[in-house]
Amino acid sequence: MAISSIDNINVTGTEMRLHTAKPEEGGKKPAVIVIQEIFGVVPHIEDVALRFAAAGYFAVAPEMFHRGGPGIMIPYAETERAFGERGKLSNDDIVADLQATVDYLKGQPDVDAGNIGIVGFCFGGFVSYYSTIKVPDIKAAVVFYGGGILPKPGSPANAPRVLDLTVMDVGAPIIGFWGGQDAGIPPENVAAIDSAMRASGNDYESHLYQDAGHGFFCNDRSSYNEAAASDSWSRSVEFFNKHLK
Description:
By secondary structure, the protein is of the alpha/beta class. The chain has 7 helices and 8 strands, in the order βββαβααβαβαβαβα. It has an 8-stranded mixed β-sheet, sandwiched between helices. The two termini are 19 Å apart.
């Protein structure tokens, strides 16, 4: 069982809500930051936090869209609106939100402040990757089909290649999960990410599920793939157990 709550913290003059979940038993626990898709901290993301709490972690899901107001949740069908909200966030905003969340965790008596990890999905997968470069307190990162690490197919030739600019600065172990049927992050992009990460000597592990598409982990979406979701969940918990416990 887990204890859940909502806390508010200040980030550069605005309030950001944190959805927290922690084990009922006392004592310091390692922490996991759970980063949303572009649809907000929807019930599925809250459930992921609860699942990590059941696995022995102090989990927290920050509302990254807080600059537009509290509790923003966008239906999965409204992708244009969701991308609009994501487009309002600069990379500096993302870092500010992450650092504020880390500072909150470090102030909690139930948190082992030296062992903080992060997991994210799609937009959140990018945030998870980016955190290993910009937030030194992050000790392990799980990336689910992180969008924006490399440009998606059809992007302009001058689209930013975040991977190329940052791969040498990764400062924590990363495990990545990808869908072989993901049109936005095709296997050739995954192969390029894998190659760059390994060539840079990073502690990196990658898993491509050939029959899965984008969003395969979310059981509330039509793209849900039970086999891929189950395997990636087990590997995520094992990864955090290895690096945070």
